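Sequence in, structure out.
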Amino acid sequence: MKLKDAYEPLLNFFRPVTCRHGDEQTLIPCHVGESRNTTECLKNKCCPSKNSHELKCYMPFKDNLQLTFRLLVLVAAGFLILGCLPLCCCACLQRSQCLNPLRRANKEVQQIVQKKKARSEDIYSPLLD
């Protein structure tokens, strides 16, 4: 696998193109030639012409609207992740007994609870026999 093959989807994401052209845009002939059919034109990432008076195969145009939308979604997802990440970390770390000292049992309180359990077992054990 070549390096170019690995980065091509990433480049295609940040360089969207379209075959729709406006009246003010000039058509640039595709490098595959004008005598190519529609299938060969599409294989070479060019745009086939629908009108007979224009070029049969022309270069696609940069789609700024699509690029703006993609960047907007990417930035919104980044803000969402950065906003939720601290909340998730705090929720997980707050429940952790090894990292949250307030969740650990105090030694004095633990001894008192054990003494009360032992005393209640001594008191109620004759009743169970």
